């Protein structure tokens, strides 16, 4: 008898971490307990509103390993959660299946109740069963009502002391007589001095036999000075992977260089049909890796399958769900609410998440790419970091290939809330790579609003005395104007140059101890008027501050100590009124000391004006040049030359033979 294709297994946390349990199991303890009175400001009446809050209950005693759950007598538990509900609309839209079978194995007496939602988050019960003996109950569920969105899930209710869920699965409908493809996966991880994180990730992958069964090779491209082989637990992780692990030492060529090496090695080996790119510092749900591979195997055409990102340190916060590219400004960003907290609002309450979202790209913290797409469209842009993932999916889309961010496939990663990498050395890569991607893919004359957006960013950083940031942005424009032939050469040479420049800019160094400033104010400045500068006020604000920053001399002593300390939350338009200011960094570990400098302001402002005008004026020529070179700079040959990888003929072609 043919084994059913398991689309999703019901799984529970491998540890009793209370921070992650709301993503796996919902004890159904929501109640209307939060009430607030809000004055409308237009009359004497107040409006009373109520909202729902989760009364947390310890579900750890209910869990029985990764597959089992034993509620207490008369307890109700819902599996309508991020990892265990079934996102039917995504499977309907992108795969060959037209329905799903829910298989639930239980012991004891209880009830199983199946629900579905639509794209508006409206919930309906679709089926139920009462069980009185040990066994497996199945429900055959169609995809008739899931064009725009909707999920399936089920709840269980205990009617006896011994009632328990032993395992459950969402399976492909047996009527389709599908045989699961034997297509294999290579996982490519790029690491730079995060050896402990990386070894833990390898151990997690090795811990799930079902996930491991579909993996052909795990490649770690080690670009750091602290080698992963020297990590104490490395040998144990290597052994657990059963001969699948390859560690490759390589010069630091950034994320794009490390992931391109993983792509190259996968193509050369010729034994995998997919490569999954994973960051080294993520915590993975291994079932999510298996799901992504299964989804890709069943897609109607080759498709990039990405996973979502949760916050590593606030684990129920969904940091990235669906992202797109605003082509007029050519800027990436979310198309869904960011940082949704499943600990405050479960899947059943969160109406927006029931809509299916189609994306422009998925971050390379977790992204599965079919090898045939790489062979056709090329490897990553040689841009070190930033925009490599977004540009690759945009390029693939131009060749007719889609990207799907698949619910239920996810990793935990350090979020951006404690980072401000647009102001440090990474500012160069943000600015250059955004501009390169726009030259390659923008359909708007002169790049749409991009030049104005860049100029506005430069001006803002100048007025906040971020001279180092603006200098790096000017270098980015120069790099773009120099043409695409320099991109490969800059992979290993640009970063040392950027870091060497930092010593010329006071604000690039972090001050951890404020007591070093003699007579520094003991309290932070609090703004009386924090309203943003808008409308006609913008022109007056700019004129006043251009004259002040470019012509007036800073007061005596501005270079001796800051005038004031501003928190990170302070509005940026407060900063220009000071000559010397300490601003807390994003993670709160220190302050950056900004001191006004007339000469730097004038020089960098002129540079910004002339360079932004120049690339806008030359847009057509530059765009034609970059597009004409795209195939060459992303080719296997160019990357092999840059990384020093010899050309290897694949031994065999990947097999489509079914799994026995």
TrEMBL record:
Swiss-Prot/TrEMBL keywords: Glycosyltransferase, Transferase
Domain named Galactofuranosyltransferase-2 C-terminal: residues: 453-643
SUPFAM superfamilies given in the database record: Nucleotide-diphospho-sugar transferases (SSF53448)
Pathway(s) the chain acts in: Cell wall biogenesis; cell wall polysaccharide biosynthesis
GO terms for MF: glycosyltransferase activity
UniProt similarity note: Belongs to the glycosyltransferase 2 family.
Name this polypeptide is given: Glycosyltransferase family 2 protein
